[in-house]
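FYI - complex with flavin-adenine dinucleotide, inputs then prediction.
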Amino acid sequence: MKKDVVVIGAGAAGMMCAMEAGKRGRSVLLVDHASKLAEKIRISGGGRCNFTNRHTVPENFLSQNPHFCRSALARFTPRHFIELVEKHRIRYHEKKLGQLFCDEASQQIIDMLRSECEAAGVIFQMPCEVSRIDRDSGNTGFVLETSCSKVMADALVIATGGLSIPQIGASPFGYRIAEQFGINVTALRPALVPLTFAPEQLSAFSGLTGIALDTIVSCNGAHFRENLLITHRGLSGPAILQISSYWRPGDPIHINLLPELDADDWLRDRRHSGVLLSNLLAQHLPRRFAEAWLGAMMGGLPETPVNQYGNKSLRQLAPQLHAWQVIPSGTAGYKKAEVTLGGIDTAELSSKTMESKKVPGLYFVGEVVDVTGQLGGFNFQWAWSSGYAAGQSV
Ligand code: FAD
């Protein structure tokens, strides 16, 4: 079989790329080893797919080259994807901070992409394993051996995503192909992932699973105002997922438990109060958390009314309320991570087309590239934008 373009990976970026190439009259084969189409879209956004973010800017992405994503994001913007969603009459809503979700189900986004691909003449081949890729004899195209057929292609697009959630088909395929062609891959690690703690660090909070707090979480210069969730293994929730992408082993994380207050002023104004300190904190924090947190800070000493603490002790408490320090022992790993940080070194690719500088005709799109979005619809926007960029070039 001979095709103009073979795309490996029928996920978000792969389908976007395939349909755009198809619309330009290219013959396109889309290959995936999974039997179900785009499982990651299906499970995304709690089943409702946070498909983009209205306020997407390059600053929402992590990469060794923070400017790399600019060109693709400018050429295919959230507005373009919203137009596609509206064309297919998929109803959606903004949850918060520009995050757009389907009203009904993520499956609608999968069906939309599939029907756009089919209308553009894209042929799907799945489940299908790619066992070997070589340059053709003229060294301009590619020859692929797959479990379905032998295929020749002028252009090859790798859209096989990252390592997160191996249970639904994630594989290191894209990184291996990069290695085969001498293309550098930056260090990989799980991101947007719950953080774990040594048992003694959070033992005071062990009975508090499910409690959520409004916090500002900071690490290595990044800050996020989001909910933090106590879990049986440590800390999670959007605040922790966001900051996990900036955390490195050994780094402390600082948690502002009272983002709305100046704790120093607030405590000073109440220094003559006869209520227990935990009762005071419970005005702004869940009561059981306030008691446990105070117990941990006071080293288990019995609680006394606020007016017995003395100004110095109260003043020492304020910075701890605004910058409670915790040191994670690790992350929950790729099984729980939403994305993989790192990937195909952006120095190896054209930022306009996603084509390899070393291997003409070879493209990398989506999460396999060293461009990782923050939480909030940015990762899909990168998949659409990078897929579109390659789709215009192949
Ligand atoms: P993928 O969508 O992962 O697609 C890769 C495809 O390649 C898959 O179909 C896979 O089967 C195929 N493949 C892999 N290996 C091979 C191989 N060896 N041979 C053939 N095919 C192969 N992002 C958001 O922006 N909003 C959200 O709401 C959101 N929610 C998420 C929720 C969860 C639980 C997870 C895990 C992620 C979420 N993400 C979200 C991140 C988002 O899903 C990914 O960033 C995005 O899917 C990446 O798109 P991609 O096309 O690069 O890769």
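The pocket of flavin-adenine dinucleotide is lined by residues 8-14, 31-34, 38, 40, 43-45, 49-50, 130, 159-161, 164-165, 169, 171, 173, 338-339, 366-368, 377-380, 383 (CB under 6 Å). The first helix runs from residue 12 to 23.
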